[in-house]
Design goal:
The chain is of the alpha+beta class. The protein is built from four helices and seven strands, in the order βαβββαβββαα. Helix 3 packs antiparallel against helix 4.
Length: 189
């Protein structure tokens, strides 16, 4: 049975920067909702431990503070984390979005019992922080390219269909735009 070692809330830092791939952290945060599951991804920045905060699709929204990253790495690097959105701040009257997250640190991966309800097993979404999955990153890039190409093709078909069947063309264009949006969500930060 896993034991909860620590529970905390903290503000995500670096939320106003864009990611290396050009995606806007502000746009990603604006699409999040309170309670949504997030992930912590360990990496080193200037030879010091750092933890990127990402959504379930791997889109970076920022980092935990330098001080908290050092503490987590020193005390809890082999533990498991359940991370979720605690609050979304700003966004009104031109203010930048901010994000407050809740982090529960467990000594081991929570076990699930077959007799438990599915809601009781939601903590299974925790991950060991030091692990980055390169295979998942490659898969996300493939999905991103695939959805983007399908979206572009649907838009082209939709433009042709507008001349023949306006409603069908409009539906194809909307489907294409939706596919491109999904492709962008899969784009790895």
């Amino acid at each position: 049975m896993s034991e909860l070692l620590k529970s905390m809330t903290t503000r995500v830092v670096g939320v106003s920067f864009d990611n290396d791939d050009g995606t806007s952290r502000q746009d990603i945060i604006s699409g999040l909702s309170v309670g949504e599951v997030l992930l912590l991804n360990y990496h080193e920045y200037e030879n010091e431990p750092a933890y990127a905060v990402t959504d379930a699709l791997g889109n970076c929204i920022g980092h935990v503070s330098k001080e908290l990253a050092a503490t987590i790495y020193q005390k809890y690097k082999d533990c498991y984390f359940a991370v979720s959105v605690d609050d979304i701040t700003g966004g009104d009257s031109g203010l930048k979005y901010g994000c407050v997250i809740s982090i529960d640190i467990y000594d081991s991966a929570p076990e699930t019992n077959e007799n438990e309800s599915s809601t009781a097993a939601t903590v299974v979404d925790v991950i060991p922080a030091p692990v980055q999955n390169a295979e998942s990153s490659k898969t996300n890039r493939v999905y991103s390219a695939m959805f983007t190409v399908i979206g572009a093709l649907l838009i082209l078909v939709g433009l042709v269909l507008l001349l023949i069947a306006p409603l069908g063309g409009a539906v194809a264009i909307v489907g294409g735009v939706f596919s491109i949006v999904i492709g962008r969500k899969y784009k790895k930060s």
